[in-house]
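Two proteins, back to back. First:
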Amino acid sequence: MAQDRLILGAEDDSGKELIGNHPDTALVDRLVDVQGEPIGKRIVQQILCNPRISKIIFTGEPGGGKTTLMGQIAHKLIEDFSDRNLIKPLFYDDVLYETEREVRRKNPLKGDRDQWELVDWKYFNDKFVWHVKSPNNIPHGVRQVQFIEAPAVGHEIPKDRGRSAVRTLVRESVRRGANSDTILVHLNADPEAQNFASHIRSEIAATAPERVITMLRQNNIVLVGMPDNDKSGSKIKNETRRMAAAAFIEKIRTEMNDQASDWLDESVDSDSIMGSIALPERIKLKGAHMEHYLFDTDQLGLSKMVNGFNAFNKFNPEIIVYHYADLLSHV
């Protein structure tokens, strides 16, 4: 189905046709910033045209489409990249799971991240940064681009869901100025996309491994590079167990809204800030959350980054394509 290049003909709230619409890159093609300007192709072109770019950080709420966006950008890059380029993904859930096992070995009483203390979350964030910076044996002349995914949103002490790690990486990017090697893409989640993600994750959990791929296709989800067999179904089920459930998605959403509301209440420019965000009303607080999310101590923010994007994509359920092969995913 992905190879058929179907035209979706998606429209925005005003009925205006959105750009793009090939199903295997539809999310990239329809991606806009909080002012409503298309940015998907700009992001891809910045990566292609600037050989210094070696890290793309994707942040945003669980269930908002970060992994899908990563895979679709990877697909666009691979179409244009030569064989002298390498895409390397780093997923929040993987580092979190790895850290959880280490913490459990040291202290069995902390068998679950809900029992973690501030020192444990700091260890996790330090490990996340280490994974980003750890050297690789890359052949001479090969360019590696890291695709880094972390929620980095919400605020519940002591829980730090990658926020400190992302701040560290963004701080270094800001210091480099025009020589920055990092692009930050924050995806403001459409609640409809989150609801769909919660539904699909529940369906995966309730479906036998040999039926998982078929069930996904029935929900208009295409997994490129995944064979239709029991092994693929089992891997997807195992991966989904570590993903955010519906209750957690709602919890993060509430945290973000509360944090953004508190900040706007204290801001003298709250009206102009909200007025500059051309998003549906149900999304505006999320856009505001990211606009101030890095400002509290270091005076860092998307406006200070050379390559910072506060993005939104209206959910379109007609077809969703996951490019696992292009993203070199572990599932």
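And the second protein:
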Amino acid sequence: MVGKLPVWIVGLVVAAGIALGALLFLPRWLAKRSDPAYSPRRSFVAFALAGALGMVGFASLPVYYLAFWVQSGPTAVPLATLSNGQKTVVFQGARNRPLRLRWPPRRPRPSRRRPIPAIRSRSSSAS
């Protein structure tokens, strides 16, 4: 999907995420700048990456909303109409049932069938 978007839009979203990461980085830098073990470069890169990924996820929310909206509504059923002038017949098409995933999965029901009795062989004794 990103391949179909103009590069400048993707660049804007990523740049906004990096700016958001920089704004979130400032309070941490102000609190930790006196610590000698603190690495501001590594911390800024982490915040910028998190901000960029967060903005990309935020920008994709409308797509996920529209996909949910389409899947949750009723589906249009295809119709075909045949007529000879006096009589009209409308055929209604069928559609496959969508896959419904359930979480947690249901436990299988115990079988209600009776077990097949074992076949006993008769021993023939010639007496």
